[in-house]
Amino acid sequence: MAFVLFPTTFGECTVAWNDAALTRFRLPDVDGAEGRGASGGDGRAREDEAPGWVRAVIGRVRRHFEGDLQDFSDVSLHWPLVSDFQRAVYAQALLIKAGGTRSYGDIARAMALGPEGARAVGSALAANPWPLLVPCHRVVSANDKMTGFSAPGGVRTKTRLLVLEGAELISE
Questions:
Q1: Which end of the chain is more exposed for a tag (fewer CB within 10 A), N or C?
Q2: Which of 38, 89, 136, 161 is catalytic?
Q3: DSSP assignment of 27-40, as one string?
Q4: Which residues have CB under 8 Å from 76's CB, separation 6+?
Q5: Domain segments of the chain: what residues?
Q6: CATH code that applies to domain 80-164
Q7: pTM of the model
Q8: Interior CA angle at 89 toward 23 and 12, to 5°?
Q9: Active site includes 136?
Q10: Residues linked to residue 136 through DSSP beta bridges, in sequence order
Q11: Cα 137 → chain centroid
């Protein structure tokens, strides 16, 4: 599996792909640490060696971090990496546009899940192999509290992304 580490204004990200789709995306650590390890194996390439469609995604990620907010719902993702349930949750997350948020419970209700649905949604989002591209950072607790973000930097990264996107955040 090929992958590229690339600089952005948020820090160094990593993208990995196969012949047809992205297999992984990694956000930078809060302190700008490199995103190594997102590929799951050898195959590091230079950015200029990546296929044109991968370079286009990299360009869009950079623009997003620079404030030209992007909708990544058209990016080709390698769906066999995730379960049918995870894919359904990610489809709901992809509906949340930049600047907006939804709660775990909102997504559970949209999927007609029972009382434990919000917890299952949270578990699915925690396993998201494409944070930012599948905008799991836009999912918050029922009281708009910043909880649960498994990407590098945790809740701090989640908050930075939401601020960048102009989401209304409630301060205690």
A1: C
A2: 136
A3: PPPTT----TT-SS
A4: 20, 21, 22, 53
A5: 2-65, 80-164
A6: 1.10.10.10
A7: 0.89
A8: 40
A9: yes
A10: none
A11: 7
